[in-house]
Design goal:
2 domains, YtkA-like_dom, 1 helix, Immunoglobulin-like, elongated, mainly beta, signal, about 250 residues, YtkA-like domain-containing protein
Length: about 250
């Protein structure tokens, strides 16, 4: 009888030990799950010189806001002047949002890159902002050009930009805008291409990002709100210091 009791007690202890071990393994598996560090960098497309601009990095991990990041900094530089960039530390505002305010003292194309360290990970997204009205540079912008074909000698070699539009463009109808870009007779890939669109006599300028393919063709769709004469200026730049822009006039029909 005593032996049976001892055997039963031993079995109970053995089962309890196995259960604890399985629980530890399950908990260990849960704690080992790793999520990517997400950073949503918010930078306006355009701002005026001497205007105070808010730059924000929204940081999240596993769908939850990160309010205790190890480090969040914003690196800012003018196109072609990366070696003279400024690094500014950001403070947490609320809900995983880290913000700074910055004033740009000159016109041009600038880059803003956030450096975020949290949860043993690092994420550094980058965006572009245009300061001032680049199309007002005069002849260098080709503001009065009616042709979309443009070739320019640059440090990367000969850059050919061909801005193409449908023959008939109508108001309140989605229009496909295409730009074919080549550098040294080869497709220019991974460039940042944006369209600046405005109606003659209007101060309102719309900015549209274009998506590129493996053939060096960059496309975007835009709907003209009314008939009249518009200017479309394509801005092309990349991390190697290229910055070109070509303007084409288009008549939008009713």
């Amino acid at each position: 009888m005593v032996k049976k009791i001892i055997i039963l007690l031993a079995a109970v202890f053995l089962l309890a030990a196995c259960g604890q071990n399985e629980t530890k393994q399950e908990n260990s598996g849960e704690s080992a799950e790793v999520h990517p560090l997400e950073v949503n960098l918010k930078v306006p497309d355009h701002a005026n010189i001497h205007e105070k601009v808010s730059l924000t990095a929204e940081v999240s991990y596993g769908g939850e806001a990160v309010e205790d990041a190890d480090e969040v900094k914003f690196e800012i530089w003018k196109e072609g002047e990366k070696e003279e960039s400024k690094m500014i530390e950001a403070k947490h505002e609320k809900d995983g949002q880290y913000t700074i305010e910055h004033t740009f003292d000159e016109n041009g194309v600038f880059f803003v890159q956030s450096h975020v360290t949290a949860k043993n990970q690092h994420n550094m997204p980058k965006k572009q902002i245009v300061i001032g009205e680049l199309h007002k540079d005069g002849a260098s912008t080709g503001e009065n050009e009616e042709t979309a074909n443009h070739t320019h000698e640059h440090s990367q070699g000969s850059v050919d930009i061909q801005l193409e539009l449908p023959e008939n463009v109508k108001a309140n109808t989605e229009t496909l805008i295409q730009t074919k870009i080549q550098a040294e007779n080869a497709p220019l890939l991974n460039a940042n291409v944006r369209y600046e669109i405005w109606k003659d006599g209007s101060d309102k300028h719309d900015w549209v990002d274009a998506a590129g393919d493996e053939k060096g063709t960059y496309e975007a769709k835009y709907t003209f709100s009314s008939s009249g004469t518009y200017q479309i200026q394509v801005h092309v730049n990349n991390d190697e210091g290229l910055h070109e822009h070509v303007t084409k006039k288009v008549t939008v029909q009713k």
